[in-house]
Amino acid sequence: MSRKKTLLAIILGLAVAVAVPLSLRLLPHQPHTHVIDLTAKKYGYEPGRIVVKKGDTVVLRPTSMDVTHGFLLDGYDLEAVIKQQGLAYLKYTWTDDEGQLHTDWDKVREIEFIADRSGKFTFRCNQTCGNLHPFMTGELIVQHNTPYHLAVSLSVWLTLSLLLWFGTGSVSHPPGSRRINLLEAIPLLKRAVKARSFQFLVILPNLVFFYLFVLSALWGSPVGNRNIAIIFVWILWWALLNTVFLPLGGRIWCLICPLPAPGEWLARKTITAVRYLEKPVRGLHHHFLGLNKDWPTRLGNIWLQNALFLVLISFGIILLTRPVATAILFLVILAATLGLSLVFRGRAFCLYLCPVGGFLSTYSMAACTELRAVDPEVCKEHKEKCCLVGGEDGWGCPWGQYLGKMDRNNYCGLCTECIKSCPKDNVGIFLRPFGSDQKLKGFDEVFNVLIMLMAALIFTITMLGPWSGIKQAANVTESRQLLPFFIYLGAVMSLAIVIFPSIFLLASKAAQRLAGGKVSWREVAYRAAYIFIPVGIFVWIAFSLPQVMINYSYIFSVISDPLGLGWDLFGTANYPFKPFYPETIPAIQGVLVLVGLFFGLTRGFSSFSDLLSGRSERVRAMIVPSLLALVVVNVFLRLYMG
Ligand code: SF4
Ligand code: SF4
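A: This is the predicted complex of the input protein with iron/sulfur cluster.
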């Protein structure tokens, strides 16, 4: 099909994709009244999902089976406190003769409202009721759920349109060729990163906060949403990492991460200076405190990081809600980095063990920045290779990278040492298009991408879903029930390392066959997996951003009372819980997931360009992985919007 006809077909397809969900709204409906007995119990509601049609009357008869719970319905300005034995207090507002607004509570047995807004709306507990309180939610679906239907139909349209568009030859080149060297464009930045004290100065504030958080996690409030460590680490930092640091700066977090810094300083026996040896010791112009060993070659991959990340997600809900578990995790990591720095040279922990480092590595491939040699030819000519082995002005790369050959972000911790050590001034930090590094190089990396995607799915189901049974199963330290926990663990592991990887590998095999079968299946799998990096990044943003929109008020509370000791340092300790436009969350999540699908498919397609020379082979190779991505995206759309 010519490019013009393809474009016409795509535009017509868009019209159909929009018209079909909108036309569903026109179907006639006779309003009904739904009387629902709503029980609230740690940590969920029964029923957890209420489905009605627009215009229906909903009568809830709430009761609590244990402690006092809240009921705050997004988008409906409906708030109640649910007590035991069918008693509830409904919030209402009224205006006095002077026009002043007052709030009061009405003792009620029923909460009645008309479902006059269509879409998905979450109702959540707003009375701190226990460890998993922030995740106690239910869902009201008011049909026709047009935003959801629209997102589903757009996802199908997008996938089919892109496959058609790929066939026209309009998307073929890796986008990484357009780059701006920030060190040239911003001389002040260059002066700053060249300073020996640069990394220390950017780590220092984090280090101070880190110890404060550890103290607070150990001795502060045991309630997660009242503890600064939980709120700042698992809500704010996690959201910032996924929405800002990673997509924009790749591994920039590793530049400022406080965890490995003390070990590195100890091994170097200095904080900012360079200890340069004229005569190299086993390839490096430095000698470190301790055994100075090299990491075993056969463990030089990210399999261990994958395994440790799986352990982390298995206990995710406990880490997110128990300050003491977070403190223990931090202290274990600190001890590991200190111990390893005295045994191995360089950042062994960061490269091979840090569970966060694993996904930072693969996801940083898509980041909008990269640190690279300005001219790799200059590196070839430069015999000393100071960036790798060390120079008088900078340490040899602690991450074992040689700039002349570094063509991906994966294993560069952006420590800026090579910028200082390179006597040829041949290192730049470049701004580049999203999704520029496109070569996964091993199944350890492929599995990392797949595990990360499944982790987003598991977290979404466990923490954001209305299924209290799953939350209870994961919450083993409180429920003390081992069998449900082991079943949960089994499901997590099978999904992340057996079920989804098997489906993916079968899809890759089919892609290889459709592409003509001449190239290796392994190489096809490496490229098909790339699709799930942008998809993964955007579903993680869709998971993390709403956490801040919902829970931001806790940030103000814990700033005033960091140790949960009843302080009110800035007058914000009792900042009211008021989610920020929560009714917009499903739409925001839907858009993010669709953006991820777009980048996943377009970048995935161009990643095939070095493997398959023919355009039609590339398109055929993309069909099955694209359909798999479409299914995955629709699972997330269902969870976020449906
Ligand atoms: S790899 Fe992990 S420990 Fe190392 S700097 Fe990055 S986040 Fe920190
Ligand atoms: S390549 Fe340069 S910035 Fe990256 S880790 Fe190595 S020395 Fe640090």
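The first strand starts at residue 33 and ends at 41. The longest helix spans residues 482-514.
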